[in-house]
Each structure stands twice: as structure tokens, then as C-alpha cells.
Amino acid sequence: MIYLDNAATTPLLPEVVKEMFDVATDTFGNPSSIHRAGRAAAKIIRQARDDIAAILAVPSRQLIFTSGGSEANNQAIIGYALANQHKGKHLITTAIEHHSVLHAFAYLKDKHGFDITIVKPNAAGSLTADSILAELKDDTILVSTMYANNETGQILPIADIAKGVRAHQAVYHVDAVQVIGKLPIHPSELGIDLLTAAAHKFHGPKGVGFLYQNNLVIDPLIHGGEQEEKRRAGTENIVGIVGMAKALSIAHQRMAENDAKVAELNTYFLSKLDGFNFYLNQFGELNMPHIINLGFPGMNQNLLLMKLDLQGVAISTGSACTAGDIAPSHVLAAIYGSDSAKLKESVRVSFSELTTLAELTEFVNILTSILSRN
User: How many domains are contained in the chain?
Assistant: First the structure.
């Protein structure tokens, strides 16, 4: 298979598999147990937490392990809003966020009476710090944005937003799922109060992630135990946590090398499209090189994906969390309008450093064959 859907998930690195296997085989104790086997498991979790915290340059107790990015986003948004609603009930986010953010906002509005503002991209498709900060009110308590969009790769002006929010009572939550392991991130230096990540986006296992929180009061989503210092009940996924720490450590060590490789893949792929009838869905001043969103006029995206899949190529139409949902991309709809033909023509190609130039060459050859018959 030619796998080009790395923004959805990435394959496990062999070193990560080995680390997880060793822990799964040798350390089976419950980390909450006080006997030797439990203490051994707890020690491994502490080390993983310390390793991740060191990469982020934050105190280790500011990390809460979760089941992934969606839970971390819900914990950050719902947990903070409910615990701090006495300060105000106004929340701000953008129209291009992941559904785990947008649906959390909708839940707070529908079930708890919060006032929410959803900022739309400008005519050029980008989101500026000014457009977000202009929506701050006296009773705003939370601003939530992506670091980079999972469908188009657009990088938002995180530092500028954080600077503006810092002068307000609101806190700033950043969904960094598409960026962790690809760009250096130090939340405290950037002025980020809450930050979420998922291991499977940087060659770690699925079903595990984390929430960074800057010593805030947050209601837990899951009750029933004292794990994670009473902030997230449930026996810890020790194998997943170890795999996540190992994968992030490798990504951190190889960051410059991986970035150069992915940038080369991006440039090479676009050069191979010379002569194709296509357009790029690229917005803002900065974009993540591992994501390319493009459309082929007159070519139905679902038909294209099916034909590529039959020939062993995996790409997507956008967020993996809506795969199987026939609704068009809410990200592109926010930019082009819900009636635009581009919503049915656009696909996402996403690389990792494991992608090869030979794979891209073969992909373009297959794509040429399909489009020539359309």
C-alpha cells in the first residue's frame, strides 16, 4: 500500500513497538497497587510523564494522560468551562476546529447555557489573531484554537493570540494534535494555558494522548478513582503511555531531519503535478508541509478515493473522524461556502518522514491514469 493519510494516523515505529511489547510483557501491575508490581508500573508512568514534560519544558504534574486528542479537548474545554463558569459564560473558538472542539462547544451551549462565538475565516481563508481577539468580552473565560488545521495544514498565529488573551481573564486552549512532534512547542513560553495532543499522530499508539494544563481548576470528565491526581479516573494505559513517550522522544530527536524530509516530499509532489488541472486549498501565511489539500475540477472526491484505494493508494477527504460521513468538509465550507463545488472535489494527501519519493512517483502515475479516464 502507498499510505498517504498520515494526518489521520501514522504507523508505529519499530522502536515504539519494542518498548510497548517489553512493558506489556514484563510490567503487568496496576499502577495504583502498593505492592512491588504496582510500584514498578507506577514508576514507568512517572518516567514517561517526566520525559514528555521535559520535551515541553513544563513541570510533569501539569500533564494529564488521556485516551487521545478528543478526550483531551473535551477535558480542557468542558472541564475548564464548568469549573470556572462563575467568572463568565462566554467562549470563543473558530469554524475550522476539529469536531471534538466544536461539539464540546455546542454541548456547553445547549446543555449549560454558555454563550459561544465561532470565528469564521476571512475572505482569503485565513484566521488572524485580531479577528479572534476582537470577540473577547468581559465575561469570556476561554479561547480555543488549533495550532494547525488537520485538513488544510494552515498554521494559526498562536503566539499573537496568546499574547492578546494573556491581558484578559480568559485562558487559551490550543489543540496541537497536528503539530506535536513536528514543531518545537513550549506551552509556558508561548502563553498557552491548555494544550492537547494524541500519540498516533507522531508514530505512537492509538488510544492515548495528554492534556497540558497550567495549574488550572478543571472539573474531571471521568469519575471513580484517584488516578492522575484525581483529575482523570481510570487505570492508566501503561503500554500506550510508554509508547507515546517513546514516540515523542524519537520525534523530538529527529525533528529537524524529519522536517527537511517532509518539506522535500511536499516540493517533489507539487512539482509532479505540473500539467494537472488542479487547485490548492491552502490558506494563511504558514502551512504544515505534511498536509496538502487539493481539488481536481469535475472529479468527485469519493469516486477518486475509491479508485485509488482499489489500486493500493490511501488518501482522504479530510478528518478521519468523519470518514464514512457523507457531509462535506466543514473546514472548506467555512471558507468557500456550503454550496461550493470544491467541497465535493477536494482531497487531502498527507506525508510522514516514512513516505518515499518512489511512492509519490507511483501515486502520481496512478492518479494520471485515473484522471485521464475521467
Answer: 2
